[in-house]
Write a structure and sequence with these properties.
Layout (H helix, E strand, L loop, with lengths): L5 E2 H7 L11 E2 L1 E3 L11 E4 L11 H6 L4 E4 L11 E4 L3 H14 L4 E6 L4 H12 L5 E3 L9 H6 L8 E5 L8 H8 L3 E4 L13 H9 L7 E5 H7 L7 E6 L7 E9 L2 E8 L2 E7 L4 H16 L4 H8 L9 E5 L5 E5 L5 H13 L5 E7 L8 H14 L4 E5 L1 H5 L8 E5 L2 H6 L1 H4 L4 E6 L7 H7 L7 E5 H13 L6 E5 L1 H6 L3 H9 L4 E4 L2 H9 L6 E3 L7 H6 L3 E4 L2 H13 L5 E7 L13 H8 L5 E8 L10 H22 L4 E3 L3 H6 L7 E4 L21 E13 L4 E2 L5 E2 L4 E6 L17 E4 L2 E6 L7 E4 L10 E5 L6 H7 L4 H7 L5 E6 L1
Parallel strand pairs: 3-4, 4-5, 5-6, 7-9, 7-10, 8-9, 10-11, 11-12, 12-13, 17-21, 18-19, 18-21, 19-20, 22-39, 23-24, 23-30, 24-25, 25-26, 26-27, 27-28, 28-29
Antiparallel strand pairs: 1-2, 13-14, 14-15, 16-17, 16-39, 22-31, 31-34, 31-38, 32-33, 34-37, 35-36, 35-38, 36-37
Bound molecules: pyridoxal-5'-phosphate (PLP).
InterPro entries: Ala_racemase, Ala_racemase/Decarboxylase_C, Ala_racemase_C, Ala_racemase_N, Mur-like_cat_sf, Mur_ligase_C, Mur_ligase_C_dom_sf, Mur_ligase_cen
GO biological process, one term: D-alanine biosynthetic process
GO molecular function: acid-amino acid ligase activity; alanine racemase activity; ATP binding; pyridoxal phosphate binding
Length: 821
């Protein structure tokens, strides 16, 4: 019997809600997202107001089987058998319910906050302590005002420890999370610059974070930080660590790289102790020290702590989506496995539309705190609920619970090796495969077998960032303004269905592509949003209509062609979009042509005008603002005339990315969001971290060579080192999109934390970097652009082009890998 079961009458009392109980129900699950309803009949749906009003989703959740709702208002819902608990603030009610639940259990709770490293430290503490504790923790990085209550809700009576992280972005948030988590032990991780814009000063930020520890017995934190904040520490006792100050409880006085490890020595209780960290990057070392200090503070011996820290494994909270063998898509989540993260990964699998068939490869789940029969029944229910078509279970426990799984196609194996031996028979083809396994099953071997071998140059796309960028622009829109997302040219180089799936799932209103083929490919990948085609070729009208794509009509010739086509096929009222040229002088009807256009459209039963739009030539540039105003005037004149003659209203749209923010009065009915979605907008300063580039381009070192001063490097003997030194040859060249203009020191790449210049001409598949004085080895990662070290805008500036060109130049042979957490 699980402990998070409440009668709905009990819930009503706990959250102090109004409304009537029409029928008694048992509540086990809490929902805040109508797209994710598992075990709907036993769930309670909170209609939160966010980007969209949660009340809009009540009817849909009811249709999916939910019968209990927490709402702000209710009488107009006429849904029989449903209970509506009415509260002033549904989010506060969710938090109150979680706080109540937390209070019922007497377990040791560690609360973690900080600007960076929270999730890693949480996962590592879990790895370090799970041998002797039954631990409940946040799934992935569920650390927000909504994520924390949902995490705390997972506590059951078998748990004797909880490890919860709390993330905040502005003031007055932490108090609420403290009331839900109530940690006795606090851990403060690295304080950096993340979320600085939400706080007036560093001081304000630190003090806000401290609020998590206001009732804690003990706080583990960096001594260096305390120097400025000693008087403000809320916890009764501190346990400090430092790499600088010997006064700290744990004084780490030395650190050396030994092969792929980092060897730390420290003084603790007047003794010298040591610890081997299996990572060498700065952030991991700091996170490992925080874990080390925490283990010591919890009373573990230095020997035991060292033994366990040495076995830490990397934490990947991200799902990786990549191309697989035989036209499969592979979602790789082979680092951790528990019920919550399984559910999250299955949701992501469910969002994929590119293949009909959905497959799950799952290993036994460890450390769930549940008896096996309960655990695997829940797993089986999830698998059924998420409509998995093919299930492959790996491990003895799954094998012995095979009768729980009611899936059309299923296979079970004792271990990973047995499964790999049967790879051929499993016949993976045209399916989306989720690989989810506990660490010890080494499912990375399966992912290596199923994912297409990546050329070692990779464009990484962060889908979470894509969504936060979308949210950023949505927050800049006037109420009711729709969003057309521009996904032309492979979504500015970022991918096809992968990006479109995400946008469709998160409800943009329209997509736009450049050519009919691009639109057809999206339809084949299961995209059903309206799609506008900017450059429809008459020769492909069959494809256009077959896939219900909407052409842009920009000239009389094109209009004629399309109307004749429609006539010949008995097509009527086909949706078209009319493009007006108001000054860009690329495509579109000019102002003097509008009258004739109106005549041709009037009473034309073959087409229906869905939208009228134009394009700004310089929406980003203040020096052209007068011109932009002229464009706006011309546009208004044109659509007014067209609407009058049509006798119906159409969707009107003008703004591209830069226009959305600079010309809010010209948002009309819809905006066309392009490069901003991918994180670039000259109208938004780079310091505004609400907008982030979604793509990072990475490659690796193929060879390192010592070069004497005066020797020449690359074609035409174009490069030279001034002094004796070293070059690294890396796996990217102009055929990958790293243009020749970057050669001879113009371009820079990041190697081992340092930006180094190119030497000599860029060649087709390779180029050379000056790495003199750096410790660089074959296989080392090289970053061409990312958000932290060298932004796309900087690359563009180096060779005198624009970010658009840098992005779309990345060639198709560079593999795209998508991350989602
Ligand atoms: C590409 C394009 C956009 C998007 O422009 P961004 O500057 O990338 O936002 C909008 N409208 C039209 C017609 C386009 O071709």
């Amino acid at each position: 019997m699980l402990n998070n079961q409440y009668q709905i009458t009990e819930v009503k009392q706990i959250i102090n809600a109004g409304g009537n109980i029409v029928k008694e129900y048992i509540i086990c699950a809490l929902f805040t997202d109508s797209r994710r309803l598992n075990n709907a009949a036993e769930g309670l749906f909170f209609a939160l107001s966010g980007r969209r009003n949660g009340h809009e989703f009540v009817a849909g959740a009811y249709a999916a089987g939910v019968r209990n709702f927490v709402v702000e208002y209710g009488p107009e819902f006429n849904l029989p058998e449903a209970n509506f608990l009415i509260v002033a603030d549904p989010l506060a009610a969710l938090q109150a319910l979680a706080a109540y639940h937390r209070d019922r259990f007497n377990l040791q709770v560690i609360g973690i906050t900080g600007s960076n490293g929270k999730t890693i430290v949480k996962e590592w503490l879990y790895q370090l302590l799970a041998a002797d504790k039954n631990i409940v923790r946040n799934p992935k990085s569920y650390n927000s005002q909504i994520g924390v209550p949902l995490s705390v809700w997972q506590i059951n009576s078998r748990n004797d420890m909880g490890i919860f992280e709390a993330g905040i972005s502005t003031i007055n948030e932490m108090e609420k999370l403290e009331a839900i988590i109530k940690p006795q032990v606090g851990v403060l991780t690295h304080i950096g610059t993340a979320h600085d814009e939400g706080f007036a000063s560093k001081r304000e930020k630190v003090l806000e974070k401290f609020k998590l520890f206001k009732n804690s017995q003990k706080l583990i934190c960096n001594y260096d930080l305390l120097i400025d904040f000693r008087a403000d520490v809320p916890a009764k006792e501190t346990f400090t660590w430092s790499r600088k100050f010997s006064q700290a409880h744990l004084y780490v006085f030395s650190g050396t790289v030994i092969a792929k490890n980092y060897y730390l020595r420290a003084y603790y209780q007047k003794q010298e102790i040591e610890c081997l960290v299996p990572f060498t990057d700065e952030a991991s070392i700091e996170n490992a020290i925080v874990c080390w200090a925490t283990m010591l503070a919890l009373g573990y011996s230095a020997v035991e702590a060292d033994k366990r820290i040495e076995r830490l494994v990397p934490v990947s909270m991200r799902l990786e989506l990549k191309n697989g063998i035989n036209n499969c898509s592979v979602i790789d989540d082979s680092y951790n496995s528990d019920l919550q993260s399984l559910e999250i990964a299955l949701n992501f699998l469910g969002q994929q539309n590119q293949h009909q068939k959905k497959t799950l490869i799952l290993s036994d789940i460890y450390q769930s705190g549940l008896p096996q029969d309960v655990l695997y029944q829940q797993v089986a229910d999830l698998v059924t609920g998420k409509k998995v078509d093919k299930f492959i279970g790996v491990g003895d426990a799954l094998l012995s619970h095979r009768e729980y799984f009611n899936v059309a196609e299923h296979h079970f194996f004792n271990d990973t090796a047995a499964m790999l031996q049967h790879l051929k028979q499993l016949d993976f083809k045209d399916e989306t495969i989720l690989i989810k396994g506990s660490r010890s099953f080494e499912f990375e071997r399966i992912s290596r077998a199923l994912a297409q071998k990546a050329h070692e140059t990779i464009l990484e796309i962060n889908l979470n960032t894509l969504l936060s960028n979308l949210d950023f622009y949505k927050s800049k829109l006037k109420p009711g303004v729709k969003v057309m997302a521009m996904v032309k040219a492979f979504s500015y180089g970022s991918g096809t269905f992968e990006v479109a799936n995400m946008l469709q799932y998160n409800k943009v209103d329209y997509l736009a592509v450049a050519y009919i083929d691009e639109g057809a490919a999206l339809r084949q990948a299961g995209i059903n949003l309206p799609i506008m085609v900017l450059n429809p070729e008459a020769s492909a009208f069959d494809k256009l209509t077959e896939y219900k794509l909407e052409p842009v009509i920009y000239s009389f010739g094109l209009l004629d062609d399309f109307v004749n086509y429609a006539k010949g096929r008995n097509i009527s009222s086909y949706r078209v979009n009319i493009k007006i040229d108001t000054g860009m002088h690329r495509l579109g009807f000019e102002n003097h042509e509008i009258d004739t256009l109106c005549d041709m459209l009037e009473a034309n039963r073959f087409v229906r005008v869905q939208s009228v739009f134009s394009h700004l030539a310089a929406s980003e540039a203040s020096k052209h603002d007068e011109f932009t105003k002229t464009q706006i005037k011309r546009f208004e004149k044109a659509f007014t005339e067209i609407e009058r003659s049509l006798g119906y209203t159409v969707i009107k749209h003008l703004c591209n990315t830069a226009g959305i923010i600079r010309w809010p009065s010209a948002q009309y009915d819809m905006v066309r969001l392009g490069i901003g979605l991918y994180g670039i907008d000259s109208a938004v300063p780079a310091s505004n971290r609400a907008l982030q580039p979604i793509a990072s381009l990475k490659t690796s070192v193929a060879q390192v060579k010592k070069i004497k001063a005066g020797e020449t490097i690359s074609y035409s003997r174009s490069g030279k080192l001034a002094k004796d030194g070293k070059i690294a040859t890396v796996r990217i060249g102009y055929a990958d999109g790293y243009l020749r203009a970057f050669g001879n020191g113009v371009g820079k790449m990041l190697v081992k934390g340092t930006l180094v210049p190119t030497v000599g001409n860029i060649t087709m598949d390779m180029c050379m970097l000056d790495v003199s004085g750096l410790d660089v080895n074959e296989g080392d990662e090289v970053v061409i652009f990312d958000e932290q070290h060298q932004r796309i805008e900087e690359l563009a500036a180096q060779i005198g082009t624009i970010p658009y060109e840098i992005l779309t130049n990345v060639s198709q042979r560079v593999k795209r890998v998508y991350f989602y957490e």
